[in-house]
Write the structure tokens for this entry.
Amino acid sequence: MSAPLAIEGGTAVRTEPFPTWPVYDEREERNLLEVLRSGCWGIGGTKVVEFEQRFAAFQDARFGVCVPNGTLALQMSLQALGIGPGDEVITTPYTFIATASAALQQGAVPVFVDIDLDSYTLDPAQIEAAITPDTKAIVPVHLAGRPADMDAIMHVAGRYGLRVLEDACQAWGASWRGRKVGAIGDLGCFSFQSSKNVSAGEGGIVVTNDEVLAELCWSLHNVGRVRHGAWYQHEIIGGNLRMTEWQAAVLLAQIERLPEHAARREANARYLAEALSEVPGVTPLPWDDRVTGHAHHLFICRYDPAAFGGRSRDAFVAALVAEGITTASVGYVTPLHRNNAIRRSVAANLARAGRAWPLTADGLPEMPSCPRAEWATQHTFWLAQNTLLGDQEDMDSIVAAVRKIQRAWG
Ligand SMILES: *Cc1c(COP(=O)(O)O)cnc(C)c1O
């Protein structure tokens, strides 16, 4: 007889919460008070500039421009790369909506290429077939904090003269073969939203090694001003995408804590991956030696219903949460190429650009088929990054809960 599951009225494996997020200490408090008392809460302050320099250096990039969030970082970056109406941007369907909506808001069309199921990032082998004369850029996502295959992506981009914008909104400190992500391509974007491993509630940054792009981004984020120019000197049209000093005050303290957090996440992720791989039906994504730094924003596992008596992934995650693994989730449930808001926006942008595109019976544009991304939305579960800030007992409780469910159903 297996132990009764918590979801069926049994006793949960654990009732203690996992480490909460966000975390802060007197460093955030001190920095925030400094901003308050300085009277410089926006333009003219020192914290945003200091954070731009520190974060860019941390990512092995020469330049950084802070913006209000990761979504605007992506949209502004596409604008800086000259991507506009009718242009095509190759990206992954297994990501947060902003990766694609940023392109749509620029009037461009996201073209979805399927993922690789060992990394859940863009399958570089499928990129070339998606390139057309309208393709302008590739936007790889370093999903969960694991870098996409930047060797292959830079290679194909170079062959076709495409720009590369790295969506590194989950990848602070991540590195590919010893090189930090963000400035491997032309531009890279990071997010500091509430759930992210480095957080100010909201926030974002664009990094690059290209001085011309850096100055263009600076101008676009500051109503078209020129760095060191006059107050009413506007050479181009840009928005107001300036970060406040409050956000930078918090972020300066947050990045001091990141190396220690990253080490703890890495150690726990390795321990957990090894232990969970012993449980039938659960497969943590395999390690790749080329990933020399993984941010572990998410801990991703594939789920095989056959080892769980045919129970769905959703049923499994509900049972896991009931056992006290409250940071477990089903993750993205709709691949972006199946999202009708995206399909309607693709249709509108194509129409505006005077482009023909095959339609399906529902009157919306036919989308490329991405069977692996579809499979992933049904056979995946995640643990949030703060789970990995716990201790070994916390990791053991996750393994115990997964085992308990597998024994009950398998
Ligand atoms: C969080 C995130 C974004 C958007 O960042 P916000 O700061 O929330 O606007 C974009 N892409 C990915 C992959 C993300 O995880």
Residues 69-71, 95-96, 98-99, 141, 167, 169-170, 191, 193, 204 surround pyridoxal-5'-phosphate (CB under 6 Å). Residues 281 and 307 are 5 Å apart (CA to CA).
